TrEMBL record:
NCBIfam families: prmA (TIGR00406). One of its GO terms (molecular function) is protein methyltransferase activity. GO terms for biological process: methylation. HAMAP family: Methyltr_PrmA (MF_00735). Its EC number is 2.1.1.-. This is Ribosomal protein L11 methyltransferase.
Length: 317
């Protein structure tokens, strides 16, 4: 089977936004080649040593690629994507050069390329992301594995925003909690949370392909049995009940829309963990959280990306 590639040449700060644009355009998978990945990789312990002198890697900027079925009108998709990428400057994001290109790729070639670059990575003190084709190495004390198949999935667990969320989960999880994972993507946060001891998890994503991908990854992890995944536009299809932990790793523009409704879903002593926050959006998010009655308990940072651990300072009667 072949796929249409629609690739956008851009900057690190626009990667999340362009990934979202491609998914909304109907992409059945996303691939990110980001120059920031090298610095991110080197900042964390890894079960794999990489010789960057021989390993091909991007020196600057980033390329975000969406994979589309060959039955679609790829030229129309490319034009629509180009229009939306050009508009990112209105949101304060530097997406330059922002050029959009199309190509055809065979699925087997795509999968082979993935396996060249995707290796086990220790992303936090306790959690290691492990591609499904790798053998589980000898564990260090307390090491836990999140098994993922990148396939045509959304997210591999190695992006700074995902790592910040996994770090935040390590900080707040005590065991036995109920958690809501909004915009689950590949399911990596839900799987990681279960490994850390969260008891009941509801994961959501607006995209049905992402829901299916998350479920497939959950099925790869025996410890993740029972995690429920549903399609939902933010909280639209989520039954109103209280959760001890709510996680949301998404664009700041979407977080702003989500934050006012979160207090209805979090327990009085519960935590809201947010990421996907680029440095120039942080103050706006902090202000929005304050207006909604949340206090910032801890701020996490990796490069230009931020994660926030929050609690309610006021409760509804």
């Amino acid at each position: 089977m072949s796929w249409h590639e629609v690739s956008v040449d851009t900057q690190t700060e626009a990667v999340e936004a362009i990934s979202n644009i491609l998914m909304e355009a109907g992409a059945e998978g996303i691939q990110i080649d980001d120059s920031a990945d090298k610095a991110t990789f080197e900042a964390h312990d890894s079960t794999v040593m990489v010789d960057w002198e021989t390993m091909p890697h991007r020196i600057s900027g980033a390329v975000v690629t969406g994979f589309f079925a060959t039955t679609i009108d790829v030229e129309k998709i490319a034009l629509d994507v180009q229009t939306r990428v050009n508009q990112l400057a209105d949101y304060g994001l530097n997406a330059l050069p922002g050029s959009v290109k199309t190509n055809i790729v065979k699925e087997e070639d795509w999968a082979t390329e993935w396996q060249k670059y995707y290796h086990p990575v220790r992303v936090t003190r306790h959690l290691t992301v492990l591609p499904k084709w790798e053998t589980i190495p000898a564990s260090q004390p307390d090491e836990k594995y999140i098994i993922l198949d990148p396939g045509m999935a959304f997210g591999t667990g190695t992006h700074p925003t995902t790592q910040l969320m996994l770090q935040a989960l390590e900080i707040v999880v005590r065991g036995g909690e109920r958690m809501l994972d909004i915009g689950t993507g590949s399911g990596v946060l839900s799987i990681g949370a279960r490994q850390l001891g969260v008891h009941q998890i509801l994961a959501t994503d607006i995209d049905e392909v992402a829901v299916q991908s998350a479920q497939q990854n959950i099925d790869l992890n025996p410890s993740a049995t029972g995690i429920k995944v549903i399609p939902s536009d933010l909280l639209t299809s989520v039954p109103v009940q209280r959760y001890d932990i709510i996680v949301a790793n998404m664009l700041s523009e979407v977080l702003v829309l989500l934050i006012p409704d979160l207090k209805t879903y979090v327990t009085p002593n519960g935590y809201v963990l947010l990421s996907g926050i680029y440095f120039d959006k942080k103050e706006a998010i902090v202000s929005q959280l304050g207006s909604a009655g949340f206090e910032i308990m801890e701020t996490l940072q990796m490069g230009d990306w931020f994660g926030l651990i929050c609690q309610l300072t006021t409760t509804e009667e």
